[in-house]
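Here comes just one.
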Amino acid sequence: MSQITIKSPKHCGEYYKQGPKIDKNYKKLFLALSSFLTAILLLSITIWIILRPAKPQFSLQDLQIYQFTLSPSHVNSSLHLTLLSKNPNRRVAIYYDDFQVHATYKAQQIASDTSLPPFFQDHQEANLLSASLVGNDIPVPPSLAYEMGRDQTLIGSFVLNLKLSGRLRWKVASWVSGRYGFNVNCASLMAFGFGSPITSKQGTQCSTTM
């Protein structure tokens, strides 16, 4: 015959006492982990509030137009620009990622997007950025050629906008933030000329939004 083992009420009581002990251990672990994550979050927020990173500053140093011809339906262009990028922060460095630039006239893109290599900018550091922009048979509305002729006849000059977009990361000591998108707009007043290239040297401050 097989032996039947029946636990006494004492044994059952000891078994049920072990359950709450295990639950308490998990609860303590959960509270400790939550407290640690909360402390890290509060520390990051405190550092952010104290340091208050300022937006990077950009200015257009030089713009050369080698070609800018408009037909009723297409545009061909060739430009070269030089920008000055400055980090105004004393304690915050910047990583620049996914940096792209293109040119527009009357809100119409006249040159294809050109990528700039990612780079690191230390505290209060300034860097010169250069890019060549080219547009081959970019479709445009017929009204753009009319607008160009009107600018040449009535004003004798035209405004080109250099548009930059990308993502950056803030760096404080060994801590690096997530990525933040930013956009830069630089306007340049160009005079019509018969020579090539048309050159504009200036220190125009560009607007930056994040």
Q: What stands out?
A: The first strand starts at residue 57 and ends at 70. The chain has two domains: 9-52, 57-209. The CA atoms of residues 135 and 155 lie 25 Å apart. The mean pLDDT is 84.
